[in-house]
Design the sequence.
């Protein structure tokens, strides 16, 4: 029998996430096994009690915030079960960064790298199909999952392997998912496993996962290149994309391509980072080095490409040694510090977008980001055409303006064939944008699947879809 915690002072610590939403819950449960998760869900299904799964609470969309009912914390399901050569097995509540360090200590590699990886859990990264800078080369979390143990909202335990078919009576949604990096809505699934990746804690609780591992690159070059303006930086990205596609293990073959706009650079300079004069944009890139010989060849290839691409060559940092790596990291880290300082000074939360568009729409989308009516910075995963516009309002009126502008941008991304969420998911804050993107029929198909697996709509109520009687 599971233990219920009903002390409000303990529950209080679990009621918010990185979205700043604040919820309420009557009971906290902390299951220690898959069977216990099953027992709790069966009980809650029978009594129609809403259950919200909570893990690292780094969701930016309110997905982990409960609006009543029970909270199920994953904190006791935190064991690494096995790390082998080709696969690793771990429980859902393991912190992703810690697990990756353990894997890398054995010389193997699990690539998905959300920026929050040291604060977020494996189960949630799978539930949200998280991604990061290395997604440019390795894709999001989805392709790296080989098996899952999932407890459905009725308390059934499923042990699923890649390739297992979806039962024929399940009403699976078929829709035109945008052909970009996306974490919005239920996926168009290839198999049963796919259905539980990216479901944002609404279709099942992931208690254990089998991960595919790959070779750990022995070395990685970090490159910080400054450009006079956005146009030259984007041109370089196009060239780097082509090169990476043509030869993934080549000497000029980025695994990450990250953009920083001129406003980011000003913020970094304000934090004391060395930013060259005349720099209007920058790219942070990573190149994997697979052999000793490749180090010199890769450095040469990157210098040549950057010079040809119009980078401010004298100021480019190619970091292979500790001192240059330090310099590079000091600039990267100065930017979030600068943003946070502004937010605190403004006394208002920021509004950060998570849109992605196809290659050919990148320029048009960037024009729209740059036309934002209030103070902002633009940075992020340009390799996947997935930039974060961070709007930093100073008044309540500006906050409303920022939210309206975000909606305008979301409609634009949809019109350009993009997605309303590339990595953070929909949660409770972006349901209206998901509805615009998928349309009424697909939304209905999502609801049919949800109701089929969760007749009383108990799990992750309020995430992705409007619950009945909400
Ligand atoms: C500073 C910062 C940087 C970030 N950077 C990135 C990034 O680069 N890429 C990215 O993709 N995201 C990023 N995020 C978003 C967030 O970290 C991810 O969505 C992450 O996967 C959430 O993990 P968590 O453990 O904190 O989950 P929580 O926030 O606790 O929960 C998130 C959702 O997952 C569900 N859930 C949790 N555990 C399980 C489980 N075991 N089974 C089923 N459902 C579950 C919850 O119910 C909820 O719906 C960032 C967030 C912050 C604050």
Sequence:
């Amino acid at each position: 029998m599971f233990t219920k915690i009903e002390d409000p002072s303990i529950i209080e610590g679990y009621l918010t996430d990185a979205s700043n939403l604040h919820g309420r819950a009557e009971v906290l449960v902390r299951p220690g096994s898959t069977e216990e998760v099953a027992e709790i869900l069966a009980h809650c299904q029978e009594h129609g009690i809403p259950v919200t799964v909570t893990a690292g609470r780094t969701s930016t969309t309110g997905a982990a915030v409960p609006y009543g009912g029970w909270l199920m914390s994953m904190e006791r399901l935190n064991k690494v079960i096995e790390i082998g050569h080709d696969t690793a097995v771990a429980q859902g509540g393991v912190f992703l960064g810690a697990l990756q360090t353990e894997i890398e200590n054995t010389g193997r590699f699990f690539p998905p790298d959300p920026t929050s990886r040291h604060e977020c859990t494996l189960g949630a990264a799978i539930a949200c199909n998280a991604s990061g800078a290395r997604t440019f080369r390795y894709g999001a979390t989805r392709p790296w999952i080989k098996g899952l143990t999932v407890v459905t909202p009725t308390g059934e335990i499923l042990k699923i392997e890649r390739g297992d078919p979806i039962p024929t009576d399940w009403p699976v949604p078929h829709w035109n998912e945008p052909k970009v990096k996306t974490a919005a809505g239920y996926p168009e699934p290839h198999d049963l496993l796919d259905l539980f990746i990216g479901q944002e804690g609404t279709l099942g609780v992931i208690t254990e996962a089998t991960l595919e591992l790959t070779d750990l690159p022995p070395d990685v070059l970090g490159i910080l290149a400054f450009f006079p303006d956005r146009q030259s930086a984007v041109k370089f990205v196009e060239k780097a994309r082509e090169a990476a596609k043509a030869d993934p293990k080549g000497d000029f073959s980025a695994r990450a391509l990250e953009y920083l706009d001129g406003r980011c650079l000003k913020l970094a300079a304000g934090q004391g980072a060395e930013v060259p004069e005349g720099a209007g944009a920058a790219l942070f890139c990573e190149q994997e080095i697979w052999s000793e010989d490749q180090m010199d060849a890769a450095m040469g290839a990157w210098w040549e490409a950057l010079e040809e691409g119009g980078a401010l060559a004298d100021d480019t940092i190619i970091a292979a040694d500790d001192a240059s790596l330090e310099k590079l990291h000091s600039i990267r880290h100065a930017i979030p510090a600068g943003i946070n300082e502004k937010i605190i000074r403004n006394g208002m939360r920021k509004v950060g977008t998570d849109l992605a568009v196809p290659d050919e729409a990148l320029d048009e989308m960037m024009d729209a980001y740059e036309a934002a009516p209030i103070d902002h910075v633009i940075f992020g995963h340009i390799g996947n055409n997935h930039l974060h516009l961070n709007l930093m309002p100073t008044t309540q009126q500006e906050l409303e303006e920022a939210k309206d502008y975000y909606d305008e941008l979301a409609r634009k991304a949809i019109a350009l064939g993009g997605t309303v969420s590339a990595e953070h998911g929909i949660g409770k804050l972006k349901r209206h944008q998901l509805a615009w993107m998928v349309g009424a029929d697909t939304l209905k198909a999502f609801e049919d699947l949800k109701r089929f697996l969760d007749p009383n709509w108990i799990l992750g109520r309020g995430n992705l879809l409007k619950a009945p009687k909400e």
Q: What stands out?
A: The chain has a mean pLDDT of 95. The longest strand covers residues 219-227.
